[in-house]
Amino acid sequence: MSIQWEGVMPAVTTKFTDTDELDLKMFEKNINAQLEAGVHGIVLGGTLGEASTLLDEEKRILTKTTVNLVNSRVPVLVNVAEQSTKAAIATAQKAEDDGAQALMMLPPMRYKSGDKETVEYFKAVANNTSLPIMIYNNPVDYKVEVSLDMFEELLKCDNIEAVKESTRDISNVTRIKNRFGDRLKIMTGVDTLALESLLMGADGWIAGLVCAFPAETVAIYELQKAGRIKEAIDIYRWFLPLLELDINPKLVQNIKLAEVYTKIGTENVRAPRLPLHGEERKQVLKIIEKSLGNRPKLPDYKNL
């Protein structure tokens, strides 16, 4: 099984009710907004999806619900972020059973694995699922870097196909292309470097603010792909203050507040997270309201 590693794939938020249950009604509303905007895949249970707070059964409900909603229009990816190799293999196999088309994988959680341990962890999961895998390389937040030499070993597994490139080093896109060509697809994972990464050869964008602004996000991707760079840059410059809400410890709360303003989400987060309050909330609202006040008119990006 393989998928097209390209385009915009939102790392969607998980919606909760006021009583801390899964809010599948609002979740469906957001997924439909993403599909209407023209996204190219859906990523479940990532950092924005509050993966560490979800029960195993909740993850499975979200996967099955999304697979049914999407109905094969775009691939559904499930994040694997576990503390043990055994648990990671089990998560991958459940995702496959529940209809996911691919996996996004983080290094082991809590324990800071060494290079060999990290490689063996990823390979063990790859060897126990038929699903294609995207390695999430985010040493800034997760303290483990997957080097090019490590990828050389990992690519011996045919189903390790892509990287979510979140090192914050824009030149890494070129290093990967120079070393691996098209064997390792690149999905940029940092909103504030997204357009730069795409212009340097990244194949797609695992996006955050897309959760609240799906059309603008997809428009940037489609415009740059069509060579209409100035138009893409103009939208991107408008978008940047919002995109910066993603590179913040409160990214979940920030983006959920933005979803409220675009009417495709709620502020509900799962404890220990709490909704924004006080001066912090005022500052985020100022950014959101100012951006909505001069929201750009988009070209017909779906028919470029």
From TrEMBL:
Residue ranges that the Swiss-Prot or TrEMBL entry lists as coiled coil: none
Matching Gene3D superfamilies: Aldolase class I
InterPro entries per record: Aldolase_TIM, DapA-like
Keywords of this entry: Lyase
Record-annotated membrane-spanning stretches: none
Pfam families reported in the protein's UniProt record: DHDPS
Similarity section: Belongs to the DapA family.
Protein name per UniProt: Dihydrodipicolinate synthase family protein
Species of the source: Gaetbulibacter jejuensis
